[in-house]
């Protein structure tokens, strides 16, 4: 019985040091001998690295630059950009108040004529202000001048409107012929009478009669009011206006959408590709202009959106959030360090060692790459979260060594012997896990993997060489002398423990806690399995949903997503207009199927039908229009009005419908006759004021109509510059390249919508490119690279740990925190709705590095030295590592950017879950072996 008890409490002898242990002990001796030189060399290397970074390191914030330039889809997009220039436009949106900001259910009302005019005034003011700063906004497109089409503008009218115009002109042929020969108001009145006499009024339906009578009544009434000397002078209007039935088409050429409810202005901001926020200055200036114009037009709502505006807001928000989170994390971690280590200097040395490693990493990045991309910029956060763990383990074991009365040299020897091998293995596996991202096709992720992998090795070098050297310098008075009294106390305690060893078995409470954690792990695995089989996907592709919900650009974009997809487009490119026309016709079935919202190109959509209708217009219009020599007088107007009155009375007498339609017009003609009789001199004076302008405008409208009725062939030269820049580019040899823009109907922020849209598009034109294709393909590359890097990391880690520990059982135990933590994280993600996204996906390699370290440290601690004491110390250090990581990353959950919040949430939950496994489950497993006198 006694022998059994003695066997169960036996402490396994530590294994003899292997070659790696001997190397580490030699390193400890070197550090103690050359501490000052080591620190000076580290400082010199850090200073040189900082100087190199400041003078030579550049930043790449262009997302397209992160994609492999040899990727086929990216080569097409780069060709498009080279031929057409930057087409990533910012949109100024104007609607009637209150607008969509903080009003998610906002649907703009149909604006009145006055509101529509005010919207155009506001757009013109903003455009003038922005155009005055071409260094910020090289292109501002608020309208297309209708007179700049080179006679081709009517080819772009809807067929319905063109048909209506042709019918109207053909019906008014006698009137137009009279006005062409006899310009002036008397000629207009006589032309109206001739139109009554020669026209086919009797063939009109009741509704058409009512509309014709109302228009005629309005015209004559307008003439009366403009010629009345008792009223303000104003030219009569409304004649031959030819307004479109489409409220999106504007007579002044402004850009309306959504049935005329929104006016938009296209803006091309100047981009500073070396800055983190490429359009920060243009955005700030534009928003200042908008605020000023908004005050002048309180009945309107103005806002900026489009991808440049969204990315700018995203960068500002994420930078602000990360800065606040970093400051809070540093303060929190510093406080935790001070409380845990009961001091400030040694923890500060650990943090300083980490800073040195970061500086070396910057220097390496400058020499190896010469730049940082927007993905790789997070390397600092990664290294801070992982690199500080090495310092924690070194400081924790060093402190415990001093606490046992050891000298500095002995404490360092003890530290290297007990955790040196585990630290090296943990660092190498973490570096390998991060470096596997280099095997992906996405350059942004590959460069991040390279920088982080090398950075972790720099952290290892700093923590195992520079930090101990600084500790030697700080505690140099105890370099070879320990605390004799404390040493005697510890020797007596060790002897007492040897004579009366404590049971190595774990307590029921510890085993119960481990059982609860294991149940949580199994629940996590079960919930993820169930969710995946029921259609759950762990990745959210929606970039828009990651942004700060208070961002104005996001609010306006969400409004556009519901009603218009102009910010998202695909484009087909061809060198001949005929090819563009053929492609246009092939895409039309997708319009009918609801896949495509609209197609835009240099070529009119229904050119043949439009030219046939314009030929009818040309035949109905006189060859020329005479100009007015001198204003008319009241007597001529009175005579012509009396003639028109008589014709209208005759027309009204044809029946009840005619009477209702033309009776009011006859009354207005009588009123005009009476006005000329009562105030002949006043009417004559008013004619001199208003008739020249009225006749000039009428003559111009009819002359322009005649000109546009015989349009020349559509060429780049006939287009306005705004349209020419958008639809016609040039290859390197100067040949023209024509563009067909394809706008989707569905929300392209939804990845499945984008994938289906692009699939159907590329089936018709395999050479198509554009924003929709670029973003979807890039997203797929990132996600595929993410999955591959995780699989590669798992394979590399498993291989390295197996080579290090050399026993399958030890390897399995060391992986428990990783596997258990990820399983519980998966369960939390299923039940909370949390998903991986483009802002947080790199949390997985971080978690792999952190959790693998804990398992490896614990196994190595059980293998070397006193298994109970060393395991207890290492477990405490692992808890501190987990707490600092969770606390550091948890501060990101105070952010406004939802992507940053999700990153903090995943890291905090994953780290905490892994800590529970490392603290409760792994010690119970290792304790079982301790109780039997075995080392794993």
Written account of the structure:
With 936 residues, the chain is mainly alpha-helical. Among the domains are: 19-66 and 344-501, Multidrug efflux transporter AcrB transmembrane fold (Up-down Bundle); 183-239 and 625-708, no CATH class; 504-536 and 807-936, Multidrug efflux transporter AcrB transmembrane fold, CATH 1.20.1640; 549-596 and 727-776, Alpha-Beta Plaits (2-Layer Sandwich), CATH 3.30.70. The chain is 65% helix and 6% strand. The chain contains 31 helices and 12 strands. The strands form 3 sheets. Strands 2, 3, 4, 5 and 6 form a 5-stranded antiparallel beta sheet that branches. Strands 8, 9, 10, 11 and 12 form a 5-stranded antiparallel beta sheet that branches. α5 (113-131) packs antiparallel against α10, α7 packs antiparallel against α8 and α13 (379-403) packs antiparallel against α14. The protein is elongated. The protein starts with a helix and ends in a 5-residue tail after the last helix. Mean pLDDT is 84; it is low at 1-15.
What's the layout of helices and strands?
Elements: H1 2-8, H2 19-33, H3 35-56, E1 58-60, H4 72-84, E2 90-96, H5 113-131, E3 139-141, H6 159-171, H7 173-181, H8 185-198, H9 206-227, E4 256-257, E5 262-268, H10 280-296, E6 300-305, H11 307-341, H12 345-368, E7 371-373, H13 379-403, H14 408-435, H15 443-474, H16 484-499, H17 508-533, H18 552-563, E8 570-574, H19 577-592, E9 596-600, H20 607-620, H21 634-652, H22 656-678, H23 680-708, H24 721-727, E10 728-730, E11 736-744, H25 751-764, E12 769-770, H26 771-805, H27 808-814, H28 816-832, H29 843-863, H30 867-890, H31 898-931
Parallel strand pairs: 1-7
Antiparallel strand pairs: 2-5, 2-6, 3-5, 4-5, 8-11, 8-12, 9-11, 10-11
Helix pairs in contact: 2-14, 2-15, 3-12, 3-15, 5-10, 6-20, 7-8, 8-21, 9-22, 11-30, 12-13, 12-15, 13-14, 13-15, 13-30, 14-15, 14-26, 14-29, 17-28, 17-31, 21-22, 22-23, 26-27, 26-29, 27-29, 28-29, 28-31, 29-30, 29-31, 30-31
């Amino acid at each position: 019985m006694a022998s059994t008890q003695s066997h169960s409490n036996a402490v396994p002898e530590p294994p003899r040091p292997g070659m790696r242990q001997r190397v580490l002990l030699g390193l400890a001796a070197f550090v103690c001998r050359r501490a000052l030189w080591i620190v000076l060399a580290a400082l010199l290397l850090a200073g040189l690295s900082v100087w190199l970074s400041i003078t030579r390191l550049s930043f790449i914030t262009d997302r397209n630059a992160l994609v492999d330039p040899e990727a086929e889809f990216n080569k097409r997009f780069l060709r498009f950009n080279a031929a057409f220039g930057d087409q990533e436009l910012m949109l100024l949106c104007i609607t009637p108040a209150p607008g969509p900001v903080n009003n998610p259910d906002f649907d703009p009302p149909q604006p009145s004529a006055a509101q529509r005019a005010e919207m155009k005034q506001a757009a013109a003011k903003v455009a003038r202000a922005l155009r005055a700063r071409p260094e910020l906004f090289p292109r501002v497109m608020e309208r297309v001048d209708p007179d700049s089409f080179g006679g081709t503008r009517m080819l772009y009218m809807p067929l319905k409107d063109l048909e209506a115009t042709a019918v109207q002109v053909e019906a008014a042929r006698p009137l137009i012929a009279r006005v062409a020969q006899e310009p002036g108001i008397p000629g207009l009145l006589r032309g109206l009478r001739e139109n009554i006499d020669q026209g086919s009024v009797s063939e009109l339906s009741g509704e058409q009669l009512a509309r014709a009578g109302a228009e005629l009544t309005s015209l004559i009434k307008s003439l009366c009011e403009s010629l009345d000397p008792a009223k303000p002078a104003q030219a009569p209007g409304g004649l031959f206006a030819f307004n479109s039935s489409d409220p999106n088409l504007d007579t002044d050429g402004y850009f309306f959408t959504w049935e005329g409810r929104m006016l938009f202005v296209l803006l091309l901001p100047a981009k500073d590709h070396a800055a983190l926020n490429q359009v920060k200055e243009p955005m700030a200036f534009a928003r200042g202009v908008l605020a000023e114009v908004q005050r002048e037009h309180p009945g309107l709502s103005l806002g900026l959106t489009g991808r440049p505006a969204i990315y700018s807001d995203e960068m500002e928000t994420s930078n602000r959030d990360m800065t606040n989170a970093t400051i809070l994390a540093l303060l929190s971690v510093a406080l935790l360090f001070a409380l845990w280590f009961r001091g400030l200097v040694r923890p500060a040395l650990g943090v300083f060692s980490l800073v040195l490693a970061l500086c070396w990493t910057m220097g390496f990045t400058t020499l190896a790459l010469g730049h940082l991309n927007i993905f790789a910029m997070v390397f600092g956060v990664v290294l801070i979260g992982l690199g500080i763990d090495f310092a924690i383990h070194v400081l924790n074991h060093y402190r415990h060594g001093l606490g046992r009365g050891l000298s500095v040299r002995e404490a360092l020897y003890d530290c290297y012997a007990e955790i040196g091998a585990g630290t090296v293995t943990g660092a190498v596996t973490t570096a390998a896990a991060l470096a596997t991202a280099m095997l992906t096709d996405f350059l942004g992720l590959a460069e991040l993997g390279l920088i982080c992998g090398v950075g972790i090795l720099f952290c290892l070098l700093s923590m195992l060489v520079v930090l101990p050297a600084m500790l030697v310098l700080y505690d140099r008075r105890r370099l070879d002398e320990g605390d004799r009294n404390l040493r005697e106390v510890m020797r007596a305690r060790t002897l007492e423990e040897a004579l009366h060893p404590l049971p190595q078995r774990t307590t029921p409470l510890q085993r119960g806690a481990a059982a609860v954690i294991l149940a949580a792990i199994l629940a996590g695995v079960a919930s993820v399995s169930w969710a995946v089989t029921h259609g759950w996907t762990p990745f959210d592709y929606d970039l828009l949903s990651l942004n700060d919900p208070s961002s104005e650009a996001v609010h306006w974009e969400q409004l556009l997503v519901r009603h218009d997809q102009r910010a998202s487009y695909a484009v087909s490119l061809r060198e001949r207009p005929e090819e563009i026309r053929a492609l246009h016709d092939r895409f039309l079935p997708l319009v009918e199927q609801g896949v495509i919202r609209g197609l835009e190109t240099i070529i009119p959509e229904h050119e043949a039908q439009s030219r046939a209708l314009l030929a009818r217009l040309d035949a109905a219009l006189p060859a020329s229009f005479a100009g007015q020599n001198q204003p008319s007088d009241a007597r001529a107007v009175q005579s012509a009005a009396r003639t028109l009155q008589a014709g209208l009375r005759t027309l009204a007498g044809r029946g009840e419908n005619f009477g209702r339609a033309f009776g009011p017009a006859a009354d207005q003609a009588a009123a005009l006759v009476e006005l000329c009789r009562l105030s002949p001199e006043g009417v004559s004076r008013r004619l001199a004021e208003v008739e020249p302008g009225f006749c000039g405008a009428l003559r111009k409208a009819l002359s322009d109509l005649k000109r546009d009725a015989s349009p020349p062939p559509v060429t780049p030269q006939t287009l306005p510059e705004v349209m020419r820049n958008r639809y016609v580019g040039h290859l390197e040899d100067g040949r023209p390249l024509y563009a067909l823009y394809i706008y989707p109907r569905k929300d392209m922020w939804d990845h499945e919508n984008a994938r289906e849209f692009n699939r159907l598009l590329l089936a018709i034109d395999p050479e198509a490119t554009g924003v929709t294709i670029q973003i979807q393909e890039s997203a797929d590359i990132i996600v595929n690279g993410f999955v591959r890097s995780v699989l590669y990391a798992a394979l590399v880690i498993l291989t390295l740990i197996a080579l290090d520990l050399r026993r399958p059982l030890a390897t399995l135990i060391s992986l428990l925190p990783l596997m258990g933590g990820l399983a519980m994280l998966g369960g939390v993600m299923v039940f909370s709705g949390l998903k991986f996204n483009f802002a947080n996906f790199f949390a997985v390699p971080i978690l792999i590095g952190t959790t693998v370290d804990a398992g490896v440290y614990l196994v190595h601690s059980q293998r070397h030295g006193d298994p109970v004491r060393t395991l207890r110390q290492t477990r405490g250090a692992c808890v501190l590592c987990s707490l600092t990581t969770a606390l550091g990353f948890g501060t990101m959950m105070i952010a406004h950017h939802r992507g940053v919040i999700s990153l903090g949430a995943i890291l905090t939950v994953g780290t905490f879950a892994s800590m529970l496994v490392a603290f409760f489950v792994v010690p119970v497993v290792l304790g079982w072996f301790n109780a039997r006198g075995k080392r794993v």
